[in-house]
Amino acid sequence: MSIHIFFDLDHTLWDFDANSKSTLVELADEYFQKKGISLEEFYPIYKEINATLWKRWSLNDIDQATLRVSRFSLTLEALKKPDQALAEELSFQYLNRSPKKTQLMPGAIEILDYLSPKYPLHLITNGFKDAAEAKLKSTPLGNYFKEVIVSEVFGVQKPHPSIFQHALEQAGTSAEWAWMIGDNLDADVRGPIKAGWKAIYFNHFQQPKPADVPMEIHHLLELKNFF
Q1: pTM for this predicted structure
Q2: For 14, phi and psi rounded to 5 degrees?
Q3: How far apart are the first and last CA of the chain?
Q4: Is domain 4-15+102-225 annotated with CATH 3.40.50.1000?
Q5: 57 confidence band (pLDDT: 50, 70, 90)
Q6: Which fold has domain 16-100?
């Protein structure tokens, strides 16, 4: 049997931070000035609130619609400029634009070109079906993956063991042949390892490596040292 390599999407191949910031720059030009808000004051508050809401969504504490609008409404409230109608418009515009942005992590296409002739490649992403499809369609990423597993479609998120079992069944392989690569320690490293996979931590922020993480890279091209 052949090794099967499974990638995470956001922050691993698709540069979530760069694409999000690019979208917010556009929205700032079109909407923020009317409220007397600068991107410099908006962005750090938004980023923190967004991260908190994504954690709550991953715990099934809030639903998709709440996450998508509340990250804007709560930011406006924190800036003492509450405006629900603006929050809903910003949410609509952000969701329409951000997934179509095309900035990828450094080395993403080069490493996929290197790996794809040798191994079956797959994708497992915690997120929303429409956004994932737009990201794959708007960039060359959609050309590389045999199976794309989206948590919203399957109904369970990484690191739950069932999504890794589902991924194996979809790919037609077994845990001993499966490798996961991603930036999230729990979702992309500890979860797969518990499921019997091998996992490589994409530590692009160069944080101290936890003792229970056996393998890491700081740049995607370092995967050539493993495959």
Answers
A1: 0.93
A2: -95, 125
A3: 15
A4: yes
A5: confident
A6: DNA polymerase; domain 1 (1.10.150)
